[in-house]
Each structure stands twice: as structure tokens, then as C-alpha cells.
Amino acid sequence: MENKISKEKIDFLKKIALNLRIDSIKSTSASKSGHPTTCMAIADLISAIFFHFLKYDIKNPNNPDNDRFILSIGHAIPVVYSAWKNLGVITEQELLDLRKFDSVLEGHPTPRFRYNEAATGSLGQGLAIGVGMALNAKHDNLNYKTYVMIGDGEAAEGSIWEAAQLASYYNLDNLICILDANRLGQSGESIHGHDVEKFEKKFDAFGFKTFCINGHNFDEILNTLNEAQEIKGSPIAIIAKTLKGSGLEDIENENGHHGKPFKQEEVPNLIEKLKKGFGINNLSFEKYTPELPKQLNAGSNNLENKEVVSIDLNSDENKNLFDKDQKIATRKAFGYALKALGQNSKNIFTLDADVQNSTFTQIFAKSFPKRFYQCFIAEQCMVGVATGLQLRGKIPFAATFGAFFTRAHDQIRMAGIGRNSLRLCGSHCGVSIGEDGPSQMALEDLGLFRAIPDSIVFYPSDGVSTYKLTQLMADYSDGISYMRTTRPATQNLYDKNEKFEIGGCKILRQSDNDKVCIIAAGITLHEALKAYNKLLEKNIKVSVIDLYSVKPIDKNTIIDVAKKSGNRIITVEDHYMQGGIGEAISGELSDKDIFIEKLAVNKLPRSGKPEELLRYEGIDSESIVKKVLSF
What domains lie within the chain, and their CATH numbers? Predict the structure, then answer.
């Protein structure tokens, strides 16, 4: 496509780019930290995107048809803040408060600044989030484009290529990836340096329409971005060769300047050098307002409203499977609950990592194929895509084996920083999965998810509690929610009208003369109930608590029951000791005079029958009885 942009427009964009460089230097120097040279490398690209191509309602960043811009190379955020300053969103003083404690302009993007699309900065994550946003636009028939700027250094991350293959699989021609090939990483040259054709070949192999350009040549930048607007059937990758520190000849393309702000006393001289080098003396410009996107009815914007989705187990078509004393695997109950949620809200989406016949997300997929995304065996990408969908107002559930979420720990951690309300379900937890062996057993997942700020962690023991807790996850919007489900079918313990709440627990057995309180969840709760019956035969009474909410914990109820049970607690869990239920209880009760004994997985498991493995790890009913008798 021929470039029909006027010389006056190009001159304007060059002036903006100079302002962006200067602002990036000034803000990082004021904070005495930051990455000005990376900002300078992408200043021309940012100028073109924000001041010519981006269709955006500045007064309403949540306008559902706004173009989206995700800075995956989060350390370059000062140049984006500079763009928002030059668009009139923030003031000069606010920009100079970069990285201060009371400033929303943090050192890497977070949602504290409402114009940041996502929390990034742990490299390699922005493209998957962009895939989620682009999928949202396709599903909702929205016109917006999603721009994602990634770095050549982070392109060594496998998560980038997980996202690239999924973008191509779903033909996301509304996704434009710009790779800043500035050659230099933190400690040396990036994997391909300035050999940009190698990056081009990679993206081409993944099915992208690719371009290699000089990232400092506005004719090339504008022509390429113009052409990208019209491409159909495939995502777009623009590999831009740039120079780190662009504009300052003394340092540009030189190693050793990463993450090093200039001294305050150097700034005036640097500004003069930049102005002279670009031949621009006057930094002022006429106010620019981006072109508005297509305006949509306010009713279509669900981003600022927290939707409450209600489901009723008594009216579910599969309600007979949830009768008391029936058996159903909690992973299957999760699948039925997902379908019920999907029937009641068009914002419920489900993602899976090629295990839908094990996680039972296939029940949802069969009913709502347009709201189901197969992410294949790429868990990092799946969590990133879920993040992108959630940021555009959807209520995403993502499921895989609990063990495989460990691969996506960084994405989960960053979603926690981003305050993203992801709903994650990990099936096949613990040694109770049996013969598949330790590689498939989630034994670290409780610790992983408990450590995420504002997360909630559920561990249901039967079909009814699973169904009810899945709804609570759908309605929880203050952070990540995680549910741990088991492989074997377990007996339903609760009536279909039983109520559950975040931070609750259930007292299943209690008397006036209990010797000890047993706290368990999931498969070990059923072992605890077996132990209760065996102990009763010996005329020994114990209390039993179902800790279905592992985080937050119902501390007061536990203390109350423990005090009535000889001030003794036994925790039993199909999880490693570290990070599990026992440690959670110990932490909550550390200031109480209550003795706590922990039964957990302490030996490396192996293949075997579930009952053999529970016995081997000392978390079966016999082991519980033995521990009670030892008091």
C-alpha cells in the first residue's frame, strides 16, 4: 500500500518521537532508575502507533471497541507513559513522579494506571494476553486491533512461540505484533542480534504475515502499519531493527547502558544533543486526539460491572448425579457446573490444554463451542489467553492437570499482580490418581496458589460442594480463584441445598468428648470419615472438619472445634507438607495453644493403586487411626 501520509504528518510524528525520548530521559533520571535506552529504541514506533494508528476514546479507556496496546517489554513503560502525557492523560509532574511510592506510574506496567492494558515486565507474556484480546474481538464482532510490542530478548522465551502458534491457529488477523530488534539485552547481545531475517523466518514458519523494517524510518513504519490494517486471514509480525539509545550517537547501539538512567545534571545537555541531532528546535506541537473507535451502546460494555451468575443444582438436568450417597468425581462435577454457568451467562468462557476429556471441560465445549478455546499443550499460553479475555470483560475458566499449572506459575504470578480474576481448575491432584505416577500428580499446587495475593483456593470433596464452589469462583472478581479436583469418584456428602461460602468449612462430625479434631479435604476427607467410624468402634470420638476453603481459612471455627477436641488437631492431605493444608492451619493458629500434627505426602510417590499410595504416604484411614491412638 502506498504511503499517502503527508510530510506535515511525518514531521509531526518525528517531533512527537523526540518528545518521547526526552520525556523518557527526564522521568527515569528523576527517579534515578529505569531503562531510558530501550525507550529511545522504540520511540519512533510508539509515536506512529499512538499518534496515528491507535483508535481510542481517551475519556473512556474501557470503551469495548478501543484499539488495545500491550507493552510486553515492560521495562520500556516510561516511553508509553510519555505518550499518554503528550496525549494529555497525565501531567508533566505526574510523569516525573515515575516509580515513586505514591505514583500509579510503576517501574513496569500494572493496572494501578488505568491505561495500562495488563501487568507485564516478567518477559514473554504480552503476546498471549494479546491473543486473548484478539479472540475476544473476533467473538464479539468488534473492530479493534490489538498491538503487542515485544522485545528481541524476550523472543527467546518459549511462551512467545506458544502464543504465536495459537494466534496463527485461530487466524487472528486483528493481532499486530511488533518486535523491537534493538540487538542488546541486559548483559550482552540478544539471541539473533540484528539478524532480523531470522526472527522473520520464525514468525513466517508460525503462519504470520511478516515484515522487516527500519524501526527509525517513518516511511517504512507507516507504510507497514498501513498495510497491516488490511491483511486478512493471518496475524501480523513486524520486525523492527532499532538502535538502543537511538538519538544519542555516543551511546546508541553500545552495550552496557541497559537499565542505567542518566544523571540529572546531564539531562539539559542531552536534550540539546537530541534536538540538534534530529534538527528540531521547537518541541511544542498542536494537541492531538486519537480518532475515536466505533461507538457502542453502553450496555455492551461489561468491563466495569461485576456480573453475578447464579446456578441452581436442583434444576440442573444432571441433578440426579448429585443425590446424597451417589458417587461422582469432583472433576466431572466441575464440568457440569461449567455448563450450567455457560447457560446462564454469555460471558462464561472455558479454555483447556488438550485434556478436556479428563478435566471434563468437554461438557462445556460441546454445549458452547464458540466460547471454548483449545489451547493445546501450552499451559503458559492458556493462562495468558485467559488473562486477555478477562481484561476484556469475560469470565474465563481455564483447566488442566493441577501438576501442569506449575509450568505457568509465572503467568499466574503476573495475573495476581494484575489483579486478574482468572478461574483455574487443576484436576488429578495428589497420589490418589494412582497408576500414572508422580509426573502427573499435583502435589505442589496448593502452595503455588496460596502464595498469590488475593487468591482464593478451594478443595472440594464431593460433587455438591464442587458445583457450588464453581459458582463462587465465577462470582469472585478480586483475584485468582483455584479449585483442586480429584480423579476418583467420591461419595456425595452434602444435600443439594447445602450452602458454601468463601472462607468457610463444614463440621461433619462432632461430640461433647472428642479426643482430637481431624481436618482434611478432598480424598483424605473420605479417609478421615472412614477413620472416624473405625475409631468409634473403639469408643474413641473425634471431630472431623471439611476444609473446602483452603484460602481463606475459617480460623474461628477451627479454633472453636479444636478447643472442644482436646486442643489437638490432625491435618491430613494428599499434597506435599510444604505449602499445604497443615502449614496453612499452623500459620493461622501459631499464637494458639493448640497441638497440630500433620499427615501429608512425605515420600516421593510411584505408580500404584490409589489405596496403595495413600497407605504408602501415611494418609489413609489406617494411618489416621494410628495417629489418633498415639496421643
Answer: 18-278 (3.40.50.970), 321-491 (3.40.50.970), 506-629 (3.40.50.920)
